[in-house]
Amino acid sequence: MRVFDWYYAWVEAWPWLHYVSAAVIVLIFLLLRKLFTRFSFAIIKMISRHGKSPLLENLLYAFTKPMRMLFVVVGIYFAILYLGPQPDVMYVVNRLLRTFLIIFFGWGFFNFSGTSSDLFTRLGRKIDGDKDSMLIPFTSRILRGLIIVLMFTVIAMEWDYDINGFIAGLGLGGLAFALAAQDTIANFFGGIILVTEQPFKQNDWIEVMGYEGVVEDITFRSTKVRTWAEGVVIIPNSTMANESITNWSEMRTRQVFSSIYLKYNSPVENVRNVLKRVDQELRDSPEVHPEEIEVYVREFEENGLEMLLYYFTYKTRWTEWLQIKQDFNMRILEIMEEENVEIALPGRDIYAQSDRSSLTGTKNVTNSPE
Asked: Where is each Mechanosensitive ion channel MscS C-terminal domain found (predicted)?
C-alpha cells in the first residue's frame, strides 16, 4: 500500500505522469501481444487436440494477426480508461472498441476464407476431387466479398447509419446500374458457367480463340491465360463461355505424326526391313500406345519415298513427349544406317539429252543441184 501511496503522491505532484502511465500500459500490451496470442492458442489447441479435423487449427491461424492487433487495441482502451475521460468521450471510445471488434472478426474470417484454407480444400475434393479446381478461388472471392460487405454494413449500423435508406437508393438506381454494368454482369455469370461446367482447371493447357497457353487465374470478370511466349492474355468470361475450348491437359495420350523421305535408289528389301523394324520398335516400347501405330510408305513424292510415322505416347507433357520423340528418331536413324537406306534431301535430279551429231562435232551438209 505504501508503494501505491508513494505513486499517487508523485502523480498528484506531476500530472503529466498520468500520460506516462497510460503509455506504459500500451507498451506492456504491445510487448506481450505475441506471448498472449501463443498462450491463448496453446490452450485452445490443447482443448481441441482430440478432434480429427484441422478446421479449428486453420481457424486459429486465420485469427493470429487479428488477435495481436486486438490485444494492442485493448491495451489502448485500458490506457484511456486509466486517464478517466469525460462520459461523451468515453461513449465514442466504446463505439470505436466495438468497431475494432467487428473488424477483428471480419479480418479473421476473411483470412479463413482464403484459397489455402482447409475449408476450401475439402470443398474442392468433395465436389470435383481436385484441389486445383477453379471453383476454389472463385468461391473464395465471392465469400470474401460477402464478408467485406457484411462487415461494413455492421459498422455502419453501429454508427447509426440508415441502411434502409441506402438500400432504397440502390433500388432506385438499380436499373441505371444494370444498364451501365451489363457487360460486367455478363462476365460474372460467364465466370459462374466456367466454374460450374469446369471445362478447365488452374494450370491446365488450353487453346481458345487462337490463343494457347496455361490457365493462371479466373476472376469475376475475366480468365488469365499465359501463352508460351510468356505473355498474359486476359479473356472476358462471357466470351470464354461462348467459345469452343480445347483442353490439351485432358489428353490421355499424345499424337506423333511425321514423315521421313527415303531415296528412290534404296533397295526395296532394305526399305521393307526398315518399315518392319521401326514398327516393331514402337510396339515393344512401354511409352507407346500399342493399338495406334502406323508405319507405311505412303506416297511417291518429288523428294523421295514418304515413310509415314503415326503413333501415340502415354506421356503428354511437352518436355517428356519431346524426349520420347527424340529417342525414337535417333533409333530410326540407327536402323536406316544398318539397312543402308538414306534420307532423301530436298532437290531435283536433272537429266540432259543431246543429239549424237552434236556430241561428235559433225555437221549434216545438203548438196543442192546447180
From this structure: 259-343
Same domain membership, residue 156 and residue 15: yes
User: Residue 16: which domain range?
Assistant: 2-175
In a domain, 86, yes or no: yes
Q: Which residues of 261-288 are buried (b: 16+ CB within 10 A; e: fewer)?
A: bbeeebeeeebebbbebbbebbeebebb
Residues in the chain: 370
Q: Look at residue 232 and tell me if it is in a domain.
A: no
What does 262-288 look like in DSSP terms, one character per residue?
A: EPTTS-HHHHHHHHHHHHHHHHH-TTB
Which of 148, 175, 202 represents a domain boundary (last residue)? Answer: 175
Distances (CA, A) of 271 to 60, 127, 263, 276, 306: 72, 55, 10, 9, 11
| Residue that the C-alpha cell 524426349 belongs to | 323
161 and 13 share one domain: yes
358: cell is 552434236
Residue 20 lies in a domain: yes
pLDDT tens digits, one per residue of 8-29: 554 555 555 666 777 777 788 7
Q: Which residue has the cell 440502390?
A: 170
